[in-house]
Amino acid sequence: xxxxxxxFLQDIDEVFDLYKMASDFKKTVSGIQWPExxxxxxETEITENRxxxxxxxxxxxxxxxxxxxxxxxxxTQNTDPAIYIHRIATNPNFRGQxxxxxxxxxxxxxxxENNKLYVRMDTTAGNQRLTDYYVKCGFSYxxxxxxxxxxxxxxxxxQATMGLFQLEV
Length: 169
Prior knowledge:
Elements: E1 2-6, H1 12-30, H2 39-47, E2 51-56, E3 59-67, H3 71-74, E4 82-90, H4 99-113, E5 118-124, H5 128-136, E6 140-146, E7 161-168
Parallel strand pairs: 4-5
Antiparallel strand pairs: 1-2, 2-3, 3-4, 5-7, 6-7
C-alpha cells in the first residue's frame, strides 16, 4: 500500500539519508550532485507542512517539498498562481515505481484545492532523459534559464542553468 503524507520532524534523519542517496545517484547520471541541504531549511518546510513523503511497505520511499513562491527561478512568472515542486528524492530500493507520476497526480489535486493554476518544477539543465520523463509525466518543457546569484536558494542553483517545467491544472 502506498500513501502520501506530510513529513514529520522525526523523519528528518531519514530524509537526509534519501537526499544523500539521490545526490550520489544524480552524480553518476549527470555528473552533478546536490549540496548538503541546510537542516533548518528542511525543518521549516516540515513545520510549514510543505514537505511530503510517499510511504510504501511502511518505509519512506520518496520525499519532496513544495513552495508557493519561487521568484529567483521563475522571475515575473512567479506572480502566477502556482505550486513549485522541489527536491524529489527516491529511495533506490523503490526506484521504478513511477513516484513522479504519483506526485504529479497529487500535485494537480493539491493545486486545485489551493486555487493554483500551475504545477511547476525545475531541474539542472542537460539531463535529456529526465527532461523526457517529466514531459511524459505531463509537464511542458519551457526551456532553460540561467540563474545568477541565487540568494535564499540551495547552493546548486548558484550560477546554474535550470530546465523549467510547467503543468496546467
